[in-house]
C-alpha cells in the first residue's frame, strides 16, 4: 500500500477546549477538516509517532465510524505501527484511559463530544490522551493547535480497507513496513480492572440480597459495560438497566446525567422501589447518584462521601490514600474530609487534565468535579461506572441507605450547599463583555469589604479574582480559569464561560455556601442559596447582558 500526500488548507478554530476539539458534525464533515486535526495530533507527537501504538475508540455517536476510518488511514501513513480499536469503534472514555495504561501505548484518540447531543445536526469531538492515559495537558493541545494554523498537507493511505466490526488482528504492508490493527472487545480490559479494584463477591451479594438498582445508560457508550458488569457479573436483573443500547443520536436526547436531562430516571426512582439510581453521560465518564425516592446526591457531596469511606474499597487498601482534589468551582465539602483525615488537598482548574500530574506524582488518590465527574488514580479520566461501583461498595460495607449516609456525613462535617446555573447558547459578544466588566469590578481594590444583602442575609466580600493555577509538579501555569467572588463566611460565587460547547457561549454560574447548623441540613439547596443566587445575578448583571431571565439548566 502507498502513502499519498494530500494538499489541504488551514481551518480556523481547531483549538481544543476543556476536553478536546468539539464542533458540530457538519464542521467535521468539511473536506479535510477531520484529516487536518488528526494529522496535527500525530505531527505533535514528533519522533514518538513512528513505531507507536495508539488506542482509538469513542462513544458510538454519529460520524464516529467515519472518523475511525480516517484515523486508521492517516496513522498508517504516518508510521504508527499499531492501533488498538474498540469493536465498532466503541470505547468509553475511561476504557480508553485504562487501555493506554495497561498496554503502555503512546496515547489514544477519543471520539466523543461527551454530554453534548449527537446525530447529523449535533456535535462530534476528537480528543488526544497521552501515555499516562489522561487528556493532553495545555502544553500538548497548544502544540496541536499551533500545527493546525500552519498545515498544508496531510499523509494518508487512501486504499487501506480495514473493517472494525470483528474482533481480531489485521496486518497491512505500507511501503515496506508492517501496520497492525487489532480490533478489541470494548469491555474486557475495563472489566478486569474493575475486578481488581472492587470486591465483586460483596457487590454481587448486595445486588442479589434485595438491594435494587436502576441504571440508565442514556443510550450512550456505557450500555455494553453495564450489561457485562452489572447484569452478567453482579447479577442485577436486566430490567434494572435501561437505555443500554448505544445509539448514534442517543435517542434524540442530551446524554447528560443530571436532574434535567435524566428526568425519566428521576421519575422512575422517585416512584419505584429502588435503593439506588444512576445515570451516565454519552462517553461514560460522568455519573449521577440517586438514593431511594430519588434523593439527589450532588457530585460535590458524592466526592466528599467517597473520600470519607475509601476503606470500603479494596484498591485503596493496597495503594493507601494519598490525597484528595477537586476542581475550583466544585463545592468545598471534600476539603473538610481532607482536613479531618490529614490528607493533602488540591484545588485545580476545571477539566480532568489538571489532575493527571498529581496522580502521576503519587500525591492524589481521589478527585472530582461538580459537573458529575468522580474518579481515582486507577486511570486518568473520570469514571462513571467506577463511581457507581464505589458507591455500592460503601453501601454494602456500611449497610446504610444513600440518604442516611449523606445525613451522617453532614452531621459530622456540616453541609456545603451547592448549585450551578447554566445559560446555554447565548450570544458570545455580550457574554465576553459581561465577564470583562465583572472582572474589572471584582478585581478593583474597592471591591473588598463590599456588603451585599438579600433575603435577610448579608455577605461581605473578602476577595475577588480571576482564578489562576500553578501545577505543583511541573509548574505549568493556567490563568483566567474563572471569576471568583469569595465572601467572609466562606461562601463563593464563580463565573465561567464553558469550554465544551460547539457554538455561542454558555455561561456557568456556581454558588457554594457552608452551613454548620444541623437543623438546616435537610433544606432544599435552591431555598438556602436563593439570596446568594440573587446577589450573583445582581453583581454580574447577567440578565441584562445575556437577555435571559432563567437558566437553561440548574444542577
Ligand atoms: C465541562 C465541565 C467540566 C468537565 C468538562 C468535560 O466543561 O464543566 O467540569 O471536565 O465539561 O466533561 P466546561 O468547560 O463546559 O465547563 V465531559 O464529561 O467532556 O468529558
Ligand atoms: Co463525558
Estimate the global geometry from the Cα principal axes. globular
Rg, rounded, reads 23 Å
Counted by DSSP, the helix tally is 18
Count of DSSP strands:
27
Measured between the Cα atoms of the first and last residue, the distance is 52 Å
Mean pLDDT: 96
Classify the helix fraction into a percent range. 25-40%
Give a list of the ligands: alpha-D-glucose-1-phosphate-6-vanadate, cobalt (II) ion
List low-confidence stretches.
none
Strand numbers in spatial order across the main sheet: 2-6-5-3-4-9-8
Helix/strand-derived class? alpha/beta
- Strand content bin: 25-35%
Describe the overall structure.
It is a single chain. The protein has 555 residues and is α/β, with parallel strands linked by helices. It is built from 18 helices and 27 strands. The chain has a seven-stranded mixed sheet with strand order 2-6-5-3-4-9-8, sandwiched between helices. A hairpin with a 2-residue loop joins strand 8 and strand 9. The longest helix has 16 residues. The model has no long low-confidence stretch (mean pLDDT 96). The structure holds alpha-D-glucose-1-phosphate-6-vanadate and cobalt (II) ion.
Amino acid at each position: 500500500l502507498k502513502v499519498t500526500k494530500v494538499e489541504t488548507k488551514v481551518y480556523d478554530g481547531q483549538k481544543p477546549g476543556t476536553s478536546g476539539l468539539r464542533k458540530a458534525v457538519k464542521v467535521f464533515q468539511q473536506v479535510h477538516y477531520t484529516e487536518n486535526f488528526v494529522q496535527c495530533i500525530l505531527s505533535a507527537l514528533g519522533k514518538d509517532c513512528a513505531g507507536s501504538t495508539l488506542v482509538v475508540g469513542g462513544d458510538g455517536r454519529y460520524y464516529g465510524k467515519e472518523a475511525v476510518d480516517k484515523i486508521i488511514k492517516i496513522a498508517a501513513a504516518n508510521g504508527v505501527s499499531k492501533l488498538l480499536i474498540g469493536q465498532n469503534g466503541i470505547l468509553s472514555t475511561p476504557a480508553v484511559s485504562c487501555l493506554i495504561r495497561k498496554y503502555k501505548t503512546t496515547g489514544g484518540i477519543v471520539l466523543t463530544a461527551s454530554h453534548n447531543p449527537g446525530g447529523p445536526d449535533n456535535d462530534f469531538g476528537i480528543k488526544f490522551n497521552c501515555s499516562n492515559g489522561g487528556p493532553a495537558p495545555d502544553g500538548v493541545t497548544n502544540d496541536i493547535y499551533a500545527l493546525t494554523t500552519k498545515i498544508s498537507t496531510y499523509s494518508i493511505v487512501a486504499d487501506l480497507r480495514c473493517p472494525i466490526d470483528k474482533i481480531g488482528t489485521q496486518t497491512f504492508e505500507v511501503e515496506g513496513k508492517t501496520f497492525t490493527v487489532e480490533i478489541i472487545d470494548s469491555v474486557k480490559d475495563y472489566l478486569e480492572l474493575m475486578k481488581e479494584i472492587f470486591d465483586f463477591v460483596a457487590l454481587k451479594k448486595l445486588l442479589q440480597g434485595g438491594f435494587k438498582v436502576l441504571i440508565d445508560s442514556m443510550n450512550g457508550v456505557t450500555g455494553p459495560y453495564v450489561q457485562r458488569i452489572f447484569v452478567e457479573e453482579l447479577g442485577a436483573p436486566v430490567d434494572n438497566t435501561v437505555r443500554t443500547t448505544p445509539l448514534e443520536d442517543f435517542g434524540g436526547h442530551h446524554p447528560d446525567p443530571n436532574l434535567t436531562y435524566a428526568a425519566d430516571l428521576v421519575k422512575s426512582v422517585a416512584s419505584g422501589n429502588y435503593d439506588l439510581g444512576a445515570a451516565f453521560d454519552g462517553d461514560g465518564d460522568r455519573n449521577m447518584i440517586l438514593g431511594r425516592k430519588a434523593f439527589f446526591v450532588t457530585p460535590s457531596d458524592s466526592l466528599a462521601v467517597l473520600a470519607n469511606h475509601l476503606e470500603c474499597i479494596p484498591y485503596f487498601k493496597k495503594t493507601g490514600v494519598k490525597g484528595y482534589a477537586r476542581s475550583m468551582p466544585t463545592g468545598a465539602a471534600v476539603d473538610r474530609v481532607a482536613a479531618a483525615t490529614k490528607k493533602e488537598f488540591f484545588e485545580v482548574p476545571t477539566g480532568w487534565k489538571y489532575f493527571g500530574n498529581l496522580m502521576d506524582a503519587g500525591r492524589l488518590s481521589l478527585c472530582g468535579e461538580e459537573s458529575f465527574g468522580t474518579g481515582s488514580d486507577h486511570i486518568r479520566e473520570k469514571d462513571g461506572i467506577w463511581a457507581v461501583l464505589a458507591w455500592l461498595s460503601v453501601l454494602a460495607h456500611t449497610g446504610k441507605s444513600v440518604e442516611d449516609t449523606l445525613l451522617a456525613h453532614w452531621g459530622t462535617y456540616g453541609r456545603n450547599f451547592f448549585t450551578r446555573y447554566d445559560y446555554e447558547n447565548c450570544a458570545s459578544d455580550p457574554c465576553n463583555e459581561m465577564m470583562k466588566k465583572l472582572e474589572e469590578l471584582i478585581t478593583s481594590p474597592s471591591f473588598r469589604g463590599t456588603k451585599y444583602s438579600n433575603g435577610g442575609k448579608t455577605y461581605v466580600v473578602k476577595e475577588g479574582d480571576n482564578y489562576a493555577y500553578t501545577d505543583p509538579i511541573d509548574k505549568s501555569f493556567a490563568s483566567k480559569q474563572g471569576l471568583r467572588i469569595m465572601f467572609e463566611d466562606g461562601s463563593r460565587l464563580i463565573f465561567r464561560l464553558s469550554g465544551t460547547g460547539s457554538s455561542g457561549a454558555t455561561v456557568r454560574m456556581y454558588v457554594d455556601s457552608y452551613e454548620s447548623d444541623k437543623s438546616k441540613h435537610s433544606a432544599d439547596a435552591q431555598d438556602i442559596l436563593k439570596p446568594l443566587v440573587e446577589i450573583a445575578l445582581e453583581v454580574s448583571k447577567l440578565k441584562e447582558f445575556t437577555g435571559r431571565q432563567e437558566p437553561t439548566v440548574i444542577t
